[in-house]
Amino acid sequence: MSAVLIVEDEQHLADGLRFNLEAEGYTVETVSTGEAALALLLDERRHFDVVVLDVMLPGKDGFTVAAELRQAGQFVPVLMLTARGRPEDVLRGFESGADDYLTKPFELAVLLARINGLLRRRDWFHLDRANAVALHNRAPDAASARPADNKGADAEHELFTFAGKTIDFGALELRTGDQVVRLTLMEAELLRHLIRHEGRVVSRKSLLEEVWDLREDTDTRAIDNFIVRLRKYIEAEPANPKHLLTVRGVGYRFIAG
Ligand code: CA
Predict the structure, then answer these.
(1) How far apart, in whole angstroms, are the C-alpha atoms of residue 214 and residue 230?
(2) b/e string for 155-171 if b means 16 or more Cβ within 10 A?
(3) Ligand 1 centre distance from Cα of residue 191 (Å)
(4) Distance 65 CA to ligand 1 centre (A)
(5) 26 CA to middle of ligand 1, Å?
(6) Residue 7 Cα, ligand 1 centroid: separation in angstroms?
(7) CA geometry: angle at 127 spanning 177 and 190, to 5°?
(8) What's the domain count of the chain?
(9) Which of 106, 123, 149 is the last residue of a domain?
(10) 32 C-alpha to ligand 1 centroid (Å)
(11) pLDDT of residue 167
(12) Taking CA 215 as the corner, what is the angle to CA 100 and CA 185, rounded to the nearest 5 degrees?
């Protein structure tokens, strides 16, 4: 049984979601503030499989909550609820570490599908709690030590190596020597998209449509913030990139070597 935390200050909406999710077999807890959500999610005695996080909250908003979770090494899948017609909120949500989004108002069936999608993706990435904690706590010099029962999973991991770095799309990690950087699902998917089109120009529009599934007219410059972050991960000199190049007026191009 999967545990869902709902962070929503509109009580009737929180109650309705709880009722319907419980009817689907989920264990549900609701909180109405970002502060309460952070307290629960950073409590190591508590476990949640997915978080439904409203952006508009009193006190700390959803963006801040997601960012503080990721900074604290908490990588629970986050489905963010954003205001309709604000694509910039969606990108800001991903920047802050959300894994998926839904615009309000939404159909219950769509919410359930998105939650199931995040749970499946999490399973696919083998990120159960034990693994996630083990990865997070792993000492750099033990980087190769994995439980033997994970061997099968390792074989399925999709690895990409370039310039002394390895991206493990299965474990959502970027490894450089002994250094391990955790990636959010969205960071990994953006990198995967650029790498798949290695050597070719990828437009901002195609990134929006194919990675974020955004079809509206969005301020595509918002993507640039994401690229800046990825450059910090993969470039020796982020201000003078060798792999993740800007193609002026169009988009980006990934070069491996
Ligand atoms: Ca709200």
Answers:
(1) 20
(2) eeeeebeeeebebbbbb
(3) 32
(4) 13
(5) 22
(6) 9
(7) 65
(8) 2
(9) 106
(10) 8
(11) 93
(12) 25
For ligand 1, the distance from its centroid to the CA atom of residue 20, given in whole angstroms, is 19
Which residues constitute the domain of residue 64?
3-106
Looking at the structure, tell me whether residues 67 and 166 fall in a common domain: no
What the block records as the tokens of 196 is 């798949």
Q: Ligand 1 centroid to 35 CA: how many Å?
A: 14
Are residues 10 and 99 both part of a single domain?
Answer: yes
Residues of the chain with pLDDT under 70: 84-85, 121-157, 214-222
- CATH number, domain with residue 70: 3.40.50.2300
Find the CATH number of the domain harbouring 218. 1.10.10.10
Q: Tell me whether residue 115 is in a domain.
A: no
pLDDT tens sequence across 158-171: 899 999 999 988 87
In a domain, 128, yes or no: no
- pTM exceeding the 0.90 threshold for the entire prediction: no
Contact 66, 75 (CB under 8 A): no
pLDDT of 85 reads 65
Asked whether residue 73 falls in the same domain as residue 155, the answer is no
Q: Is residue 118 part of a domain?
A: no
Interval between CA 205 and ligand 1 midpoint (Å): 29
The residue written with tokens 């290695």 in the block is 198
Terminal CA-to-CA distance of the chain, rounded, Å?
Answer: 45
Q: Same structural domain for residues 90 and 182?
A: no
CA 160 to ligand 1 center in whole angstroms: 40
What is the CA(57)–ligand 1 centre distance, in A?
5
From ligand 1's centre to the CA of 53, what distance in Å?
9
